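User: I'm putting together a small comparison set for a docking exercise, and I want a reference complex before I start. The sequence is below, and the ligand is magnesium ion. Could you produce the 3D structure with the ligand included, as structure tokens?
Assistant: Of course. I'll restate your input first, then give the structure tokens for the complex.
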Amino acid sequence: MPRFDVTIAGELNLDLILYGLPAEMPAERELLAEQMVLTLGSSSAIVAHNLACLGSRVGFQSRIGDDQLGQIALERLERIGVDISRVRRIPFPTQTGMTVILQRHRERNILTYPGSIAELTLADLDLEYLGDSRHLHLSSFYLQKGLRPEVGKLFRELKAAGLTISLDTNDDPDDLWQGGLQDLFAYVDVFLPNAREACKIVQTHDLERAVSRLAELIPLVVVKLGPDGAMAQRGKQRVVSPAVRVTAVDPVGAGDSFDAGFLHQFLEGADLATCLAAGNLAGALSTTAPGGTEAFRDSTHRERFFREHGAVRARTDPVFNP
Ligand SMILES: Nc1ncnc2c1ncn2[C@@H]1O[C@H](COP(=O)(O)OP(=O)(O)OP(=O)(O)O)[C@@H](O)[C@H]1O
Ligand SMILES: [Mg+2]
């Protein structure tokens, strides 16, 4: 029996989110926000946190600065039960990163100081630790510039050790969608893009085309569709699942929370419809409080949400592509 259900090698930083900003933000003026939240950020850490919150045994490897931001981030993970014993704290000038999100009514600005994110390399990782697990998840492929050229090697070794692997690239800030991504698909069991990312990767504007192409390369492709829910394609089988209706505070970390909900059920051996419904439930829960983990951390809020919405079921539509 492996020690962990899921191990994650990835980035760890904080999000500072400001709400209630003026619609126009002229330079050189003192602009006031109505509310602020400092919370755990970064895709890998949000997936780890929310998986642990759902009951998975999670091991997390990362490289952060030996500073107060890093300390806050680590405490958040530790308190929820993520094993952080292999997170490396590196002295100054390495610094833990920070994302500042200016959340306005119709749009937001996202400003990231990556800090140590790009510094993580394969040499920081303990493959024996990561391999003592049923599953490996990797997020933020394009932000992890140091690790990126070695992800193929990481996947190959862990696949040989018997783990299943999931990948969520998230956005590519350079908008190039290269970096050997296609070569990784041979090792990936579950690919978790959003609709835009799926289209960018296949270089098409047609989501159906993107999904069928990706499904030729990867056993299970799961596409997140924001307020429209999600769909999955396994070979010729298609399952779609509607979003849970909620009043959203912000969409920060909804995709990562979806990954956590989906993977938790996937590793329980649930059918695809149940995995998708669990992903949508977790994604929706995330939107009901600031950032990607606050709604999960608040156990009263979380339990009430699951009581009210937990009965939502997925619709199973076997669709055969021509
Ligand atoms: N407004 C909403 N109402 C209900 N559910 C939502 C809403 N927005 C997102 N979700 C849920 O969260 C999931 C993931 O959201 P989304 O499609 O925005 O992912 P993403 O673009 O990968 O997000 P991220 O910015 O976190 O990477 C959706 O599939 C859906 O289940
Ligand atoms: Mg995403």
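The chain has one domain: 4-11+43-96+116-309. The chain has eleven helices and 14 strands.
User: Thanks, that's exactly what I needed.
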